[in-house]
């Protein structure tokens, strides 16, 4: 019984990975860069997305896919509010997006008029790590209030990312957060990860992060 269950899970993941590859090929054919953002609930995914979109050049055309476990449109409405197309994806209670859901979301976008797609994954530090979506880059947003031990408790999600954004650094004076200890945990898992410290509230660090991302987006143009 155990062996059959493992085979089924492997089949599902193999199909998912195939769809992800097809999605990535489609986006590259349209010269679109894509980014999968993962984080725990409350880390500031949407607020960072809004700040990032506002910091990028105005002629850089973006869209956002908003993943959520419930059929709410709060985050999508915030993105629409700054004039950026957003598609809400309801996972039906699942704790992560998968490649097929992202594919359906992308089908609702005008790909001929986009340079950049952000996928905001479901707030979770475990499930999203196992599912490829077809994006060019994976990143994690951490935040000061979450504590500095997350890389040690949830290592898998940090292994496959290219960027780590530590958000809410304006709270460092008020929270016992050891940044060197946190960084050591990240680099032990992923020595080549790019690390950014930002505050979505004050804007500190946002220009450096947005400039690095701009270069990544233009690399597929």
TrEMBL record:
Pfam family, one: cobW
Classification lineage: Bacteria, Bacillati, Chloroflexota, Anaerolineae, Anaerolineales
Organism: Anaerolinea thermophila
Record-linked PANTHER family: HYDROGENASE MATURATION FACTOR HYPB (PTHR30134:SF2), HYDROGENASE PROTEIN ASSEMBLY PROTEIN, NICKEL CHAPERONE (PTHR30134)
Biological process, per Gene Ontology: protein maturation
UniProt keyword annotation of Transcription present: no
Molecular function GO terms recorded: GTP binding; GTPase activity; nickel cation binding; zinc ion binding
Protein name, per record: Hydrogenase nickel incorporation protein HypB
Superkingdom field: Bacteria
Residues in CobW/HypB/UreG nucleotide-binding domain copies: 37-196
Keywords: GTP-binding, Hydrolase, Metal-binding, Nickel, Nucleotide-binding, Zinc
Family: Belongs to the SIMIBI class G3E GTPase family. HypB/HupM subfamily.
